[in-house]
Amino acid sequence: MNEARRAAIIHALLGAVKAEDVPMGTYDIGAVRVVITLPDDAQVVRESGTAGNGFDDAVTRYKEVPMAAIAMFLKQKGVTGAACKRTWKALIKRVLFDAFDEPMPSEALEALEEVQAENEFKLRGLKKTSARRLNIKSALVEVYDPVAA
Predict the structure, then answer these.
(1) Which of the residues 81, 117, 122, 135 could staple to 41 if both were Cys, CB 3.0 to 4.6 A apart?
(2) What element of type H or E holds 121?
(3) pLDDT digits (tens, 9 = 90+) for 19-30
(4) Strand locations in 25-136, DSSP E?
(5) Is 132 helix (H, G, I), strand (E, B) or coil?
């Protein structure tokens, strides 16, 4: 089996090969059979989570002040209309092109923490638990390719 075809098959089945590692082209991989043999003690475990249904309770935490809050701050300070657009353009340009790495003002970060602490119940949600592989250090993968036969 040629390497390009093999890479295409592995990518289709496992995603183990990055797309860019598959040479450009169309590979007809129909009728390929794959047998995967796992160790006798192989297991996959997904915990029930803190919510009991495969999910953990999770609280979304923001590390930066949302842009909408910054926009409202500027508007309250009287920066509106053409002046608002000029201010946004200048700020965006500084951040994108002038290596502006000034931290968010501490007052804004403190306010963000306070709002999150006071409204934690509104930030609560569910996060899916992940599955873990146990006792699977290797597997035998056999590919039967009718084209290569």
Answers:
(1) 135
(2) helix 120-123
(3) 777 788 888 888
(4) 33-37, 43-46, 55-59, 124-128, 131-134
(5) strand
